[in-house]
Amino acid sequence: MTYRKHFNLNVSDIDLIETSLRKELHVRSEKYQESAKQKNAKEMDSFKLSLSEITNLLGKIHDQKFWYQGDPAKPMVPKG
């Protein structure tokens, strides 16, 4: 079995994915803090791992974006 390397997603799709990941990051962060208060090391490790995975995925999405500057009425010029 092989995996697709390219996906047909538009900007709105990516924005929805990114927003959902940020909400899930917030939820899991709160659960991690609750586990820390209860000193539940096993749960803390599990949440810490998932927080790291979500953060890394958000970083990958961020790094693949094209950033533009200037007047929106003029042709787009890539930044950086």
How would you describe this structure in keywords?
two-stranded antiparallel ribbon, 2 helices, 2 strands, mainly alpha, single chain, 80 residues
Spatial sequence of strands, sheet with the most strands? 1-2
Radius of gyration based on Cα positions:
18 Å
Number of H- or I-type helical stretches: 2
According to DSSP, the number of beta strands is 2
Class inferred from helices and paired strands? mainly alpha
Coarse morphology? elongated
Strand residues, percent: 5-15%
- Cα distance, first to last residue? 38 Å
Mean of all residue-level pLDDT scores? 88
User: Low-confidence spans: pLDDT under 50, at least 5 residues?
Assistant: none
What is the number of domains? 1
Largest sheet: 2 strands, antiparallel
Order of helices and strands: HHEE
As a percent range, the share of helical residues equals 55-70%
